[in-house]
């Protein structure tokens, strides 16, 4: 047996899952399991109890939500990747999916599970922060909304409390005109060495709003505010691109590992900032 | 640990078993059903040697628990051949020598069938991109790609 022993509970409804979470403080939710089961096989994690939500019907939806999109807890990556609604209303996420995992894993893995897993090199948290997504957390105590910026707290650490389940992801309609995602990884679909997700709003040739969000270079996806400030207030010209790239590199404090040292990651962040801002600005035209 | 009862279909045959919840699907297939065509490579959803079809879509059987499969339909490499012999994708692997040591082959064939199901006449670039989740430790991709292209073509008849 690869994983350590655990109790297995199969939830038939969201309420069932919330009840099980409340009664089993040592439980973990099993969604797509593409990270969780691999980590259990390696015994990096040994949850005492798994609550399987895969049997709950009607939580894999991708629906219109005002001018935005509401995504259910069990929407699989491939369904999100190929959703025409997401492509229209949150194309940054569609573009990011070009770099996320591979087909077989995306068939099973879920966006909600990916966000709750909060791997520091994960792409989707960067997209959530860049677009200003809202995460709906539910427990027997009630429901609350948490903005993506407040959700990711550290490596594998989120604002989700133990008895809460992420039930829905709400993506706002496009508030910005320009968007771009870029990543550097060892192998296409592999863990990211560095990620930048950028959104821009340009009016009359002047950058009015910008989000430049990094992943893979810290404990969690985070806005690089100095880079955003360098962009806002004028045209996206070479001077602003240089300033934003330098500010982005200065705003991160990356780690070194066997894939890339800190200096490389810093350079990658500068290059990806330049690349995404240029592409996002071109999309504003 | 109390066992959990699960009933699902494997290669068209209904299977009911009481399993320890931590039994991975790949272990269940190999050790309980003796279907050893599905191979264990990495155990961490990286290599694709354990690829099976779950309700018609490829899945890594090392990243699924057997107890999760209640009511599901699973097809393994043992289930793809027809009454007349090899599946066209298997025949193409034989014809184009799409294997060296053979360890990754069951997963490659299962993925090849899925690629052919989703792409009409897939070209080399498409096949290579789609094979991202299947590793060949002999690095024998050239003939694997050729086999899948040929297999896809003969599946279209």
Architecture blueprint of SSEs:
The complex is a heterodimer of chains A (285) and B (157).
Chain A: E1 7-10, H1 14-23, E2 27-30, H2 36-41, E3 49-52, E4 62-65, E5 68-72, H3 77-81, H4 84-89, H5 91-97, H6 103-108, H7 111-117, H8 124-131, E6 134-139, E7 142-147, H9 148-151, E8 152-154, E9 157-158, E10 165-171, E11 178-185, E12 192-203, E13 206-215, E14 222-223, H10 225-231, H11 238-251, H12 262-284
Chain B: E1 4-10, E2 13-19, H1 25-32, E3 51-54, E4 57-60, E5 73-75, H2 88-95, H3 105-118, H4 124-130, H5 141-155
Parallel strand pairs in B: 1-5
Antiparallel strand pairs in B: 1-2, 3-4, 3-5
In short:
Helices cover 36% and strands 27% of the residues of chain A. Chain A is an alpha+beta fold.
- CATH architecture classification of the largest domain in chain A: 2-Layer Sandwich
Q: Whole-number radius of gyration of chain A?
A: 19 Å
The description of the largest β-sheet of chain B is: 5 strands, mixed
N-end to C-end Cα span of chain B: 50 Å
Number of strands of chain A: 14
The CATH topology annotation of the largest domain in chain B reads as Ubiquitin-like (UB roll)
Largest Cβ-defined interface = A-B, 31 and 32 residues
The assigned structural class of chain B equals alpha+beta
What is the strand tally of chain B? Answer: 5
Mind telling me which CATH architecture of the largest domain in chain B this is? Answer: Roll
Contiguous helical run count of chain A = 12
Question: Can you characterise this structure?
Answer:
The complex is a heterodimer of chains A (285) and B (157). Chain A is α+β, with helices and mostly antiparallel strands and 285 residues long. Chain A has three domains: 46 residues, 2-Layer Sandwich (Uridine Diphospho-n-acetylenolpyruvylglucosamine Reductase, domain 2), CATH 3.30.43.10; 110 residues, Uridine Diphospho-n-acetylenolpyruvylglucosamine Reductase, domain 3 (2-Layer Sandwich), CATH 3.30.465; 107 residues, CO dehydrogenase flavoprotein, C-terminal domain (Enolase-like, domain 1), CATH 3.30.390. In chain A, strands 4-5-10-6-7 form a five-stranded antiparallel beta sheet. In chain A, strands 11-12-13-14 form a four-stranded antiparallel beta sheet, sandwiched between helices. In chain A, β4 and β5 form a beta hairpin. Chain A is globular and about 60 Å long. The mean pLDDT of chain A is 96. Chain B is α+β, with helices and mostly antiparallel strands. Chain B has two domains: 75 residues, Roll (Ubiquitin-like (UB roll)); 68 residues, [2Fe-2S]-binding domain (DNA polymerase, domain 1). In chain B, 33% of the residues lie in helices and 16% in strands. The longest helix of chain B is centred in the last third of the chain and has 15 residues. Chain B is globular, with a radius of gyration of 16 Å. The mean pLDDT of chain B is 96. Chains A and B meet through β1, α2 and α6 of A and β4 of B.
């Amino acid at each position: 047996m690869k994983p350590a022993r655990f109790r297995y509970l199969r939830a038939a409804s969201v309420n069932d899952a919330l009840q099980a979470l409340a009664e089993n403080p040592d439980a973990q939710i099993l969604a797509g399991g593409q990270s969780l089961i691999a980590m259990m096989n390696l015994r990096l994690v040994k949850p005492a109890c798994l609550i399987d939500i895969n049997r709950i019907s009607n939580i894999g939806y991708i629906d219109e939500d005002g001018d935005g999109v509401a995504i259910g807890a069990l929407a699989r990556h491939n369904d999100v990747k190929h959703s025409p609604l997401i492509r229209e209303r949150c194309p940054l996420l569609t573009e990011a999916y070009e770099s996320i995992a591979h087909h077989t894993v995306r068939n099973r893995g879920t966006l909600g599970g990916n966000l709750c897993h909060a791997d520091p090199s994960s792409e989707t948290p960067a997209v959530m922060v860049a677009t200003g997504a809202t995460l709906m957390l539910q427990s027997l105590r009630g429901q609350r909304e948490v903005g993506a910026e407040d959700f990711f707290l550290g490596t594998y650490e989120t604002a989700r409390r133990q008895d809460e389940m992420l039930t829905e992801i709400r993506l706002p309609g496009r508030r910005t005109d320009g968007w771009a995602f870029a990543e550097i990884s060892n192998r296409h679909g592999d863990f990211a060495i560095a990620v930048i997700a950028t959104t821009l709003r340009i009016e009359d040739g002047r950058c009015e709003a910008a989000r430049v969000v990094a992943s893979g270079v810290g404990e969690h996806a985070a806005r690089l505010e100095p880079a955003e400030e360098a962009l806002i207030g004028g045209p996206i010209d070479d001077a602003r691109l240089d300033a934003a790239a330098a500010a982005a590199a200065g705003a991160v404090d990356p780690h070194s590992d066997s894939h890339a040292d800190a200096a490389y990651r810093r350079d990658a962040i500068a290059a990806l900032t330049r690349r995404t801002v240029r592409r996002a600005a071109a999309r504003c035209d | 640990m109390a066992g959990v009862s699960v009933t699902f279909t494997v290669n068209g045959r209904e299977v009911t078993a009481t399993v320890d919840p931590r039994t991975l699907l790949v272990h269940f297939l190999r050790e309980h059903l003796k279907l050893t065509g599905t191979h264990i490579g990495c155990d961490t959803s990286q290599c694709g040697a354990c690829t099976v079809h779950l309700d018609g879509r490829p899945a890594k059987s090392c990243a699924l628990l057997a107890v999760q499969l209640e009511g599901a339909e699973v097809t393994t490499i043992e289930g793809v051949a027809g009454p007349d012999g090899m599946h066209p994708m298997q025949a193409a692997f034989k014809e184009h020598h799409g294997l060296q040591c053979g360890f990754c082959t069951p997963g490659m064939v299962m993925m090849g069938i899925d690629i052919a199901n989703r792409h009409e006449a897939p070209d080399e670039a498409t096949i290579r991109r789609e094979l991202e989740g299947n590793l060949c430790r002999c690095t024998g991709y050239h003939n694997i790609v050729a086999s899948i292209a040929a297999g896809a073509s003969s599946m279209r008849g």
